[in-house]
Design brief:
446 residues; Herpes Virus-1; Jelly Rolls; 20 strands; rod-shaped
Length: 446
Amino acid sequence: MATDNPVESLQEEATCPVCLEYFTEPVTLECGHNFCRACITQCWEGSDTAASCPQCRETVQQRNLRANRQLANVVEIAKLLSLQAAKGARGDGVCERHQETLKLFCEEDQTPICVVCDRSRAHRAHTVVPIEEAAQEYKEKIQAHLRTLREEREKLLGFKEAVEKRSQEQKIVSEFQRLRQFLEEQERLLLAQLDKLDEEIVKIQNENVSKLSEQISHLSERISDMEGKCQKPASEFLQVRLSEKHSRSPHRKKRCEGQLHVVVARSEVQLDHVNVTLDPDTAHAILILSEDWKSVRWGDMRQRLQDNPERFDSDPCVLGCEGFTSGRHCWEVEVGGGRFWAVGVARESVRRKGEMNCNPNGGIWAVRRWWGQFRALTSPVTPLPLSWVPSRIRVCLDCDQGQVTFINAGDGAPIFTFPPAAFSRERIRPWLQVEKPISLSPPGIM
């Protein structure tokens, strides 16, 4: 309390914090604070936000305005004590009518009286007690009311804490439910993706098994045929070989060599041996093409050519005129003894201007010799034995499988096969990077 005077303490407890007057029709909010009904209603009137306590600013329900009758009684007592104190101050404890000391208290009229007033007709039948005794009695009543109010306030604070705790628990439960729902949804999505991936894997496995079975069957037939020939007598066996040798035409020989190449390169069907020519519109200005567009060499100086969008302007490269989007195709490149060259294929969209990214990420699949190094242009590059460097390279392109294979055209030995790529039906064209003369041809020619 701000003062040790019980009367002043009672007056403070009976005063509305809004109008600063005695409570009129006091009501209690959920937070435990008390206001006049008219004052709190006026505070909330016209507010767009949620109702809150003017004293502690806690959000409350406008409907939960509970009348506080005990506080109303305390207010009446405070008013009487204030009146008595005012009268005592004016008359210094002396009866205004009889000028006698106010020593008694009339309980019926609730006012201090003197001895003469006690004997008068107005108070003769009333219950009268000494003023000190009456004051003590009312103080005890006030203290009892104060204890009751404090207990009720503590009870309301306990209810408030319980409600806040339940609200917090509900928020936590709601958040866990939301997280569980999210995780379950993610689990369903991942399981669906796994199922789809399993189906694709099974499909690829079945296709590979089918292809391998076909190859095994073909090889088994060849083995059986050759074993049968080996079982023949020597004279008959030599006659068969001689007959085959004389009857085999150059065209038949080339076709058999092509079939042998297919087995070595692990292709399942006959490759299309294409006749490749070079595209002069893409050739770097330092490169010189032959009249038939079949070979290219490094020139002595840059030519004054039109700088069209298709032309390479940084690296000495050139593309083939032909482009492929499906099927299996092969051609051969004569590199001779050159120490600076690269052979392969490139996407139609390969970068022509500025620095190039010579690997599959840049749209190029190729092998390169640079001084004493022989490499496959992967990312990072894959070193290859320098002993594998051929003078003639066969380039095999499988558009359907997204695969590029390089073979030594001299002995049919495989050099390197790039991992399958997604060409996405984009045109794939022959690609060369040269320093010495290089020429192109289908397999078996030259």
